[in-house]
Amino acid sequence: MPAISSRVRSVLFLFLFFLTPVSADTVSRDWLGGVPDEGFLAYEISRKGKPLGFQALTFSRSESGELIVDVHIEIDFKLGPIPLFRYLHDNREVWRDGILLSIKSKTYNNGEDVTVDLKLEDGRYVGSGSRFEDNLAAPLLSTSYFNPNFVRQSAFISTQDGRLLPTKIETIGVETLNINDALLQATRFRLSGKLRIDIWYSDAGRWVKTKFSRGGNTLVVKQTNPARIPPRKKWRHP
């Protein structure tokens, strides 16, 4: 067999390196990896660098030890003083050992009220939802995003209306983000299908950023200091 020159070996190495996709395994499989010790995560929602709203996740434990996740979202898109779009969302999820036990949410989606009230029974999610079709077989994760195993799924439960969201996930690669005035390495994933977003997770499993388009507008959701969002007493609810 003829010898391979060092130059050829170098070119071959680079070729194989760039053909090899970054795996979702760079992100922690610990379903609690993204839950902070302080029990609270805050995110700023922006368009073209201008704040439009915020998202907050509050984590607590039930008396029997289940993880309770409360999600609150507010978006106000205005043209000067004229309101163009308003979105308010409250969602409570209950989890045990990485398994979603229940979802109960209420959403005001720019004039439309939508709800979800589902719980896990005998391997299926049963109950009601504005677009629920009784086709949700466990295991499924929701679109609350905090669980890093989100990037290892092929379908999700919409926390907004209860429908099934079949999705394909592509790993884009590792990027450096500015999170809370500090540089952080995070892996970017692209979802296509019924759920179309780009989402970033740190190696530890923390959800740090999402980007998506709605009505021709690109919105960015990025982790921020909790002091930068309104205090809880000023939150508006659907």
Brief characterization of the structure:
By secondary structure, the protein is mainly beta. The chain has one domain (21-227). The chain has 1 helix and 14 strands; from the N terminus they run H-E-E-E-E-E-E-E-E-E-E-E-E-E-E.
Keyword list:
55% strand; mainly beta; 14 strands; globular; 238 residues; single chain
The order of strands across the largest sheet is: 7-6-5-4-3-2-1-14-13-12-11-10-9-8
Briefly note the structural class of the backbone: mainly beta
Give me the strand/helix succession. Answer: HEEEEEEEEEEEEEE
Main pleated-sheet profile? 14 strands, mixed
Low-confidence stretches: 1-22
Overall pLDDT score: 90
Helix % is under 10%
Question: What report would you give on this structure?
Answer:
With 238 residues, the chain is mainly beta. The protein has one domain. It is 6% helix and 55% strand. It has one helix and 14 strands. It has a 14-stranded mixed β-sheet with strand order 7-6-5-4-3-2-1-14-13-12-11-10-9-8, with no helix packed on it. Strand 1 and strand 2 form a beta hairpin. The longest helix has 14 residues. The chain is globular and about 50 Å long.
